[in-house]
Amino acid sequence: MFLASKEPGELLGEADHLRGNCLMRLGMYADAASAYADALQDTSYGKQGALLTNQGKALSAAGDLNGAVQAFSAATRDASYATPYKAYLGLGNALLTLGNVTDAGVAFRAAAIDGTNPAPASALSSLGSCFLQLGRPADAIEAYRTALDYVGPHDDTRSINAGLGESLVADGKIADAIDAFQSATADGLYELTPSQQAAFDSARETVSSQSAIASTQAGEVAFDTGADPLDPLGKSGNFMPDPSDTGFFTLSESEMIQQDKKDMKVRRKHRHTGLKVFLVILIILLLAAGGLGFAYTRGFGFPSQQDAVNGLFQAVTDGSDTAAYLSPSLSDDAKSAIVSSIPSGATVTISAMDQNMTTSTAKVTAQLSKGATIVYQVEFDRSSNHIGWTVKSLSADFGTAGTGGSATGEATVSSDDSNAPDSSTGESSDASTDENQGSSDSTSEQSSDTDSEASSTTDSAQ
């Protein structure tokens, strides 16, 4: 079909290339080689390296090894050929079949070190075979072991191990050779080549003979009555204990007992070290837990009462959420009532507190932004996590006098007004003045007005 796609004598490299591929699949190798030769005549088609490599494979299959060598060699000289390792592999196999082991090894080495070769294990294994045939077993061993390092999913490790075993026997490394042969035949399916089987049998015979000789020598030594029973071969040297070094043979029975007791004490000490460390850690944990428990029963928590009341007043000032600082047992109306009674911008300080494990009561002084002060009675209870504190109730303490305050039952307010009277007496200051009695009466009236204004200020602040 591809031949019919062109006129007689027409150069059409692509058609001849595809025709050659088809003929290779059909096993018509001589015709395939001729088709690749026709494709090579079309210089405009290019792909010289690939065509020459395919032609070399066809000629090798057809039995023309010399023609294959020429084709493969020409392919390796094509600088544009993307995968030259294929030509080197074909060239090496053809040369090895012709008996040119040295040049075959050179070709296999070039294929192995080609950077485009994704699986160099096959070329390395063939290189090892060449080294072995050239009488260089040490180089063959290195090649086979490198092949095992680069083995891929399509490489036969059994074949590589068999070649390695044969090389190890040739190099006199019998034990390693037996291991390699056993790895090659472990599955019971791989069949060694005649030369490999002969090497394997030779290695096993060598090991058997060495074992027999060693057993015979051991038997002869056993009946040598003149030998030292502690050192029959006389080769132990410094490994035997010397009395002057150890003192073992010079100790009395009592001294040996004492020494044994000391050794037992040292062993017990080392044996109990882990237990002691565990007990120390356990005691530290128990002390820490006890300290935390005692602090909890004494009313300590996180956040503390001061943190809770500070956070509540600051949240009111910032206009942020206050739920975190109020007791979870309060209703929404109760929470709203507490929040609405707190003046914005106040700074609070706990001046006195009675606390226990679950509840606390505190006297809190609030410093208003204008300078006045309000005293609150605040009750706390534990938060939802039972660790920190939250505000349960807050009310103004009308029975406690603040700075310049009044004990008349109204909220206490302290003013920075220098004319403010002494609220405990409702009368003007006793400081000496040059003013007359009428002036004192006027001052008393002014004091009453001031108390009234302070009371109004407190009411509006609340």
Automatic annotation (TrEMBL):
<feature type="transmembrane region" description="Helical">
    <location>
        <begin position="277"/>
        <end position="296"/>
    </location>
</feature>
<dbReference type="Pfam" id="PF13432">
    <property type="entry name" value="TPR_16"/>
</dbReference>
<dbReference type="InterPro" id="IPR019734">
    <property type="entry name" value="TPR_rpt"/>
</dbReference>
<dbReference type="InterPro" id="IPR011990">
    <property type="entry name" value="TPR-like_helical_dom_sf"/>
</dbReference>
<feature type="compositionally biased region" description="Polar residues">
    <location>
        <begin position="416"/>
        <end position="438"/>
    </location>
</feature>
<keyword id="KW-0812">Transmembrane</keyword>
<keyword id="KW-0802">TPR repeat</keyword>
<keyword id="KW-0472">Membrane</keyword>
<feature type="compositionally biased region" description="Low complexity">
    <location>
        <begin position="439"/>
        <end position="462"/>
    </location>
</feature>
<keyword id="KW-1133">Transmembrane helix</keyword>
<feature type="region of interest" description="Disordered">
    <location>
        <begin position="401"/>
        <end position="462"/>
    </location>
</feature>
<protein>
    <submittedName>
        <fullName>Tetratricopeptide repeat protein</fullName>
    </submittedName>
</protein>
<feature type="repeat" description="TPR">
    <location>
        <begin position="121"/>
        <end position="154"/>
    </location>
</feature>
